[in-house]
Amino acid sequence: MSETKAKGVPLLELRDVSKTFLKDGAEFKVLEKVNLEIDEGEFVCILGPTGCGKSVTLQIVAGLIEQSSGSVILDGREEHGPGPHKGMVFQEYALLPWRSVRENVELGLELKGVSRKERHRIAGEQLEIVGLKGAENSMVHEISGGMRQRAAIARALANSPRILLMDEPFEALDALTKEEMQIQILKAWEKTKTTIFFVTHDVDEAIFLSDKICVMDINPGRVKKILENRLPRPRHELVCRTDREFGEMRDQIIQLYSSLKDEELDLVF
Amino acid sequence: MALIADRLYYVLGVIVFLAVWQAASVFKLFGSEFSESFSPVAAMLALIEMIKNGELVHHALPSLRRVLISLSFAVVVALPVGVLVGYFKRIEQMTYVVFQFMRMISPLAWMPIAIIIFGVGDVSVVFLLWLVAIWPLILNTSHGAGRVSPLWVNMSRTMGARDAGILRKVIIPAAVPDMLTGLRLAVGVSWIILVPAEMLGVPDGLGYFILDTRDRFRYDQLMATIMVIGMIGYLLDSVNRWLIHKFSWKI
Ligand SMILES: Nc1ncnc2c1ncn2[C@@H]1O[C@H](COP(=O)(O)OP(=O)(O)OP(=O)(O)O)[C@@H](O)[C@H]1O
Ligand SMILES: [Mg+2]
Questions:
Q1: Range(s) of the domain holding residue B24
Q2: What pLDDT tens digit does each residue of chain A (269 aa) get?
Q3: Which residues of A touch B176 (CB under 8 A)?
Q4: For a pocket test of ligand 1, which of A55, A166, A202, A264 has the largest count of ligand atoms closer than 8 A to its C-beta?
């Protein structure tokens, strides 16, 4: 831990972030004092069982929902509300169906008032990065799920965000497309050097992608453990999933998971 | 091939309709005195006569003009109102009762008031048509704007959009298909209300001409005018259907 501190100020910092929802008039604690630091350029995954508050955490960082207490600090400043400096990629793509792929990617630039020519150039660049060259003029309903998610990633990247937030972005895709997309996002990450905060409940995905894995506990959602992932990069070659280190990392996480399960059982009994 | 067969059935339906109509007049179902002039053949001949002597254009153009002017005013007022009603929950709550109440009132009920304010003539007719056209436009637009996926709204907020940006880039384009549906309904009711509205003292128009042919006992021309009203209505509706087809987005 002191190592990361020595590197200087983190890009993103969650300080004692808690969230309580009102459910049928009763208070329902979803997140309890989540603390997390993400350095510039890092690829961090949140891993945790369903319902542990991963999406809520990400939406708090995005500024789409407000925490009940604690603070979100980006670039040393406390964050309030959403903005194009925090790019978000939704699991459901959230592309606008009346726009072509290119027009979808240009959305943020239009909102910023960027000139047509410049929009065109930036969108082309981003579509190239995510491997969508040639599909610029397709309509959303004409392209596959994998291509839609690429377009959504390009759209977020077009705003040159300080951080890219991704909520189980590949969950709706078939296994092969999912692996393809994992490689694609690593390539895009290396090219753009954008910091990525990535939610998943897929252990292998977290290990394959991340520098750091934040394993979450449930009831209430909180950080169970933060694991440094020292698997060598680049990891484009799928072989690395069969590496010994990969297996060790997975064992470690599974053990954490099973202790989560035990606690849950304790709660039930 | 199936397509040609499909088309044939559409045509066949029209032929059957005309045949039944003709038979009805041959068997004097409209009364022994006038059945002759009520027949489609008589109507057709009268129509040709009306086209030749310019009467048709003389009455159809003012009707179209009134409908198009009132629709333009209705669109200009109803689309922004509909978007605001659909997007802002408080505005919807404040307008709900009033709008549902107002839309149930036949515009013809307003006729005396229209005449007191605007006098007999074009302005009153246009006002009544406007009054009937705004409700389907407002209600469909607000329905479309109100059911826009929150996911798109959240997405656009993460792209830097505030209220104005959300309205311009998400809500309004998303509501276009509903706006067009509203327009189609508005054109339909306007065209229907046009005829009685033009019976209220204007000197031309298809509604006026219906009364005029009646007073002159020209039932063949009356039937011809009825056919023209139906045909123009059908054409206007076809334009709307084409617009909907052309500008509706697919998921
Ligand atoms: N707007 C909300 N109002 C009330 N409760 C909510 C709301 N959003 C989330 N929750 C609750 O908070 C808890 C955490 O939800 P969240 O969506 O963050 O889980 P998750 O970790 O993302 O799960 P999954 O892996 O299934 O996506 C759940 O119990 C959920 O029901
Ligand atoms: Mg989730």
A1: 1-36
A2: 444 445 578 999 999 999 999 888 888 999 999 999 999 999 999 998 888 999 999 999 999 999 999 999 999 999 999 999 999 999 999 999 999 999 999 999 999 999 999 999 999 999 999 989 889 999 999 999 999 999 999 999 999 999 999 999 998 888 888 988 999 999 999 998 999 999 998 998 999 999 999 999 888 898 998 999 988 888 876 566 777 888 888 888 888 877 766 555 444 44
A3: 98
A4: A55
Helix runs in chain A, H state only: 2-6, 54-62, 101-105, 107-112, 116-129, 145-157, 175-192, 203-209, 244-268
A59 close to ligand 1 (CB < 6 Angstrom): no
CB contact under 8 A, A90 and B155: yes
| Distances, alpha carbon B79 to alpha carbons B94, B102, B139, B179, in Å | 17, 17, 9, 7
Model pTM score = 0.86
B103 contacts chain A (CB < 8 A): no
Answer yes or no: do B108 and B201 share one domain: yes
* Fold of the domain built from segment(s) A3-85+164-264: Rossmann fold (3.40.50)
Q: Is the ipTM of this complex over 0.90?
A: no
Co-location of B61 and B32 in the same domain: no
B149: closest CA of chain A, how far (Å): 9
Tokens of B146: 């109100």
Q: At A204, list the tokens.
A: 């292998």
B114 shares a domain with B20: no
Is the distance from CB of B196 to CB of B129 less than 8 angstroms? Answer: no
Residue B68: closest CA among B244, B240, B241: B240
Would you call B169 and A87 a contact, using CB atoms and an 8 Å cutoff? no
Length of chain A: 269
Q: Is A159 on the interface with B (CB under 8 A)?
A: yes
